Amino acid sequence: MAEDKLSQGQHLALDQLSDIVQASNDAVEIVQTELPSSDGGSLLLHLSIETIEYERKEGGFKFRQREPFRVFVPSRFPIEPPSAEFAHHRFVGRAHVQWGNHLCLYQAVDVEWAASDGMFGFFKRLDEWLRDAACNLLDPNDAPLHPPIEYPSSDTKLSVEIDTPEIKDGSRFWMGAAKLTERNRYCYDISEWTEVSEALPNDERFAAVILLGQSMPTEYPATISTLIVALKARGIPFDLLFSILKVVALCQKEGEPLYFLLGAPMRRRAAGERLRQHLTTWKMAPEHVKAFRDIVMECSETDTEAAWKLLLDWATETKTEWCRVYDNRPEVTYRRDLHTSASWFFGKTVALLGCGALGSHIGEYLARAGAKKLLLVDQSTVNPGILVRQQFRHSLVGFSKQRSLAVQLMGISPKAEISCEFANLTKGWPSKINLHEFDVIIDVTASKRVASALQLDWC
Amino acid sequence: MFDEPKVIFWPVGTGDSTSIVVQDGIVLQVDLRDLSSADEAEDDHAAVIDALVDNLPEVGGRPYLSVFALTHPDKDHVLGFEELLERVSIGEIWFTPRVFIENDEDLCEDAVVFKEEAERRVGKTIASSSDVESGDRVRLIGYDALLKEEEFEGFPEDRLTVPGNSITEIDGNDYEGEFNAFIHAPFAEETVGDRNNTSLCMQVVLGDDPSEGGVLLFGDIAYPRLRRIFDTTIEAGNDDYLRWKVLLAPHHCSKSAMYQTENGSEVLKQDILDDLSNSQVGDGVVVASSEEIPSQNKSGDNPPHAKAKKRYEEVADGGFLCTHEDGESGEPLVFKMDDGTLVSTEAAAGAVATRKLGSAVDKARGSDRPPSEQVGYGRR
Q: Which of A123, A246, A278, A292 reaches 20 to 30 Å from A37, CA-CA?
């Protein structure tokens, strides 16, 4: 019996839905119910919902008198929320509609989904989504834009640390390269943009970059061929695309993939701000990079012919492999400590006296807060007993505290200038350190003698 | 009323009466259901024959109707024909003679009168070698094999329209560019059985471009024929003849257009709804020619069906209208030509300031607030 496959939660969902249908005066109709075919499978509900009540405003979704939906109720409901999709693709390309028909109902499920409200909460959210969609309020002016969707399929991530270059007046795009710095085996940093003329240095790694002056579809192309068509429609003919890929391919090491950053003005950080580039990265497999190189290097006739064939296959058959982009650009992000006390330390020069029970923790806060310059002063060493409460690793036992902490903080904030000083502060402020270069000096030595010595020095 | 191109759906209960005005005074009447109760003051059914008599142009001292087309001879499509014939001069009639294979006792009185009138005209057309006047003209809708039968022997080929072709001639005059009726069905082999399945089905366009959409009149066919019409027409590359601005819901908003019984269960055929959705032009409107549609039906209920109405509401960008729910009581739904396209003079119901879904949730939950969640450190 298929009904046996229904979880306790799915039974609850059906009961709650039945109550809603009965109370809806025909606004909600269960057209068909597909029970899970196996244990743990989803319950699929085909629903028809009256949408005539949602008043449409300019730019809003144009609903018909009723709209057909498919609602998937997972076996772990209500811990896991249901999901909903239109039973058609009329709204493909609209923001907050993914995969052509899936409704993006929750931004942060852990925060927004209330398991205790079950299907009632789900339909309330659906009601709000439909109302806002009809009124064109899914992306209100006082909120960030819902970013376009690309579906990452690569393990590689790129962290973009600096703002993108501006597209010159009169130009439809910016084309160039981005310098890649390996952060670890999974992630590259982008902290420099460069315009490309003839060639790029072979001892460094670059990604090809095109920043468009107009938007891309809300859902990014899934194949190279559709990507090529989309770019052509935005003023990037294939020969131009080919030329930038060629230049960057030449500086790639043998056997390495090529990364291609594509930007389109589809992001906004806050109300009133102009649109900024939304960055995506597409990865080209090493064999295709080699084909580019073989064509450019004009190897043997046979090799060149094979390379062209491979590239033709790539252009017509290959799926786009999108990488996740961690966007850390100031122009599109707010620091998460914005408006907190910690944010005061951003860009400040700080001397931290004492790197122990208090200092090792405070030092980390300062580094994370974005202090520009940190001086760490201490005169003791890491011993096994302090590992219980101080921020040092097992392997650092025996090292000086100020140096150990400096190494750790450099790992947290590599852009900060972090130095350390071995000094006995009971003898007063070290004469070789310029007191006036600091915005703030924090004494966490917990030593009354140090406090007295400094007071004597400075008074 | 009949002075400019338009399509008129009369409120005649659950049955069909559609008037198509090609130009001033040139009217094609598709089916008829004239109820005697319509003459009573409080009745909301239209007295169609009275309306035709009052509004048709007079020719030779009698009201003149250019064409009467019968989709099939069921009572809800031919009721009142005898009276119409008495009071109105009908220039030409269109019919599918195969549906008259049955015995007369299976037909209602008006259908018998129609059959006799059709046979009279067929006989006169054969005798006159097609040289007949208005009032005696007839057009057969069917296949070549029809002309080999004894009763149609000698019938001129130019008075026969084979499904898959268009008619632009009305009562001896050609209106090409202003009028095109593309005949979709009946299909050749469907000659017996349920009369509904042998309905005359057509797209009528008041203009010269079927891709701009016309009105689809599908009689009383159900899903299998509807499916076949789409498949056959698309396969023949005639997609434009499926384009619609107005769709008269087959069989008075019967769910048989999109639901089928398979293995004892009722199955929704979403494919035909998708095809209908894709073939509408702009804000297409679905019209149900029926009594008010109940909010629910019991098993075995005749059309109209609430389920079918909901499915059409999911299909039509311009909305769903019912001859007995929308418009003034007793008045027809009218679609006029505006800038080359059919436009309803009766807007489908617009948005109203209700919160039906949200209110239903509140009612079902018993509160307009979600349950409060305990937040704290594990202590009470």
A: A123
